[in-house]
Amino acid sequence: MKFIASEFDSNSIKVGVSACVVGQPVRFDGGHKQSTFAQSDLSPFVEYVPVCPEVAIGMGVPRPTIRLVDHDGDIRVQGSTKKEIDVTEDLRAFSHEQVTHLNGLSGYIVCAKSPTCGFQRIKIYHPEGHLLTNDSAGVYTQALMKAHPLLPIEDNGRLCDPVLKENFVTRVFAYHDWQTMVASGITPQKMVEFHSRYKFLVMANHVPSYRMLGELLGDLKRAPLEDIADEYIAGLMFALTQRPGRKGNTNALMHLQGYFKRFIGSDERQALADVIDKYRVGELPLMAPITLLRHLLVKFPNQYLSQQVYLKPYPDKLALRNLL
Known about the structure:
Layout: E1 14-18, H1 36-42, E2 47-51, H2 53-56, E3 66-71, E4 74-79, H3 88-99, E5 107-110, E6 122-125, E7 131-136, H4 139-147, E8 153-155, H5 162-183, H6 188-205, H7 207-216, H8 225-241, H9 245-258, H10 266-280, H11 287-299, H12 303-306
Helix pairs in contact: 3-4, 5-8, 6-7, 6-8, 6-9, 7-8, 9-10, 10-11
Pfam family, one: 2-thiour_desulf
InterPro entries: 2-thiour_desulf, DUF1722, UCP037004
Protein name: DUF523 and DUF1722 domain-containing protein
């Protein structure tokens, strides 16, 4: 497995971050790109590992701007106006060295539009100056994604979207949960128990993955456990990148509703059904039916349901489902 348990601390959720996103004045102009969500909302629950590749290779603050330039297929990092500046090899060397020491991270927030840290839609120019495409990632982030393909990554711009924000945080906490389990020593029982807790979350996000992961764990003796674990976490993280929307969440909510039919009266059944339907049509946020289900669990305890990550994928104080 690529995850190295000895480099992981289960007591804290470590998240890599572009230094400018958490307010460090390391931008080319001496400024920053501070994200309120990263700096104020998420910070109480994670430990940030800030990195600025451009400062790390000695470019200084302030500094000339740089961009990606395509020289017949060789993407170079050069000065935007001072074309004699070329920091390609320094950035590649730093990126390769840095990402090999990030096995303990559970997520990463990068800076949008940056030729080094950008996640997507980074511009690539012709040596003569005209734009060729805008479908690249930054040099550092490319190395990060190659070394850690399962690591949840988002940029500060996309995290302004409530759906993308909630999805990213869900993936970070799920990935940390998996890392914690692996670090404790993986066993067939732990694998099954882990999957049991994630069933409804996966169901909401991607039903085909829900079926595939269940089948994957159906025979844990068919291959080395480590190989099955690698396949499982790859499948889980893929499933969680598939944002559920109201259709997927309604499906999971209705399955959860079915567990209470034998215990609650007709009035409570109708109330729950009404809240789920109002969520389905957009009249209530997702937190409304979730809260009602959690209330019913207090009244009618069920061990299987109470351990479902879907009902609480991250701390309530983040309040991310209030906007979904």
